[in-house]
Amino acid sequence: MVRKRATPEFRKSQIIAAADLVLLEMGIEHFTIDRVIDRAKIAKGTVYNYYKNKDEMLADLGYKALSMLLSHFHTAVGGQKSSVEKVKAICKSSYDYYRVYPQYFELISYMERPDFEINMSNYLKLSQEITNMVNHVVAEGQEKGEIKKDLSSDMITYIIWACSVGVVQFVESKEKLLKNHHEISTQQMIKGFSEMITKGISL
What's the chain look like in SS3? Predict the structure, then answer.
C-alpha cells in the first residue's frame, strides 16, 4: 500500500499541537524547539521548514491564548447590566483566566516584550479586538454617565491590563506572605483590586 504524504496543513497542525503540549507542561521559561521536536516525533529539518525560530512558534500559540482570553472576557461581561460592573468583571476575569491557563497568560505577557519582532499581524489584530471590546465597555459607560470622561477609554483599558498583570504577578509571588502574615486571601486581593479600579473611574 502506498503511504499518503502528509499535507503541509496537517504537518503544521502536528507541530503546533506538540508545541502547545510543551508550553502547558514546561511553561514559557523551558519552552524550546528541541522539546517540540521530541514531542512531535518529526524531523528537525521538517519543523524548521515551518518555523524558523521559537518566537514564530510562540506567535501561533499566542493567537490561541488571546482567542481564549477574548472569549473569557465576553463570558464575564455577559451577565452584567452596568458598564461599571462589566469593568469589574473584566478585572476579575483576568485573574480567573490566569488561574485556569497560567501558561497562556504568561505567554501573552512574554509576547509584549519590545524585542519580540516576529511578524504577527493576526495576533496584533486579535489583540486590537480585545482592546476595542474593553474600550467599547468603557465608552458606553461614559456615554451613560457611569464612568468619568476625563480619561480616554484607551488609557483606562491599558491601565486595567497593566494592573491586572501586576496584581497577578504580585499575588502569585506573595500569596503565602499575604495569607500567613496579613490574613489577606487571594480572593480578597482580586476583589479589592477590581473595586479600586471601578471606584476610581466611576462617577
Answer: CCCCCCCHHHHHHHHHHHHHHHHHHHCHHHCCHHHHHHHHCCCHHHHHHHCCCHHHHHHHHHHHHHHHHHHHHHHHHHCCCCHHHHHHHHHHHHHHHHHHCHHHHHHHHHCCCCCCCCCCHHHHHHHHHHHHHHHHHHHHHHHCCCECCCCCHHHHHHHHHHHHHHHHHHHHHHHHHHHHHHCCCHHHHHHHHHHHHHHHHEC
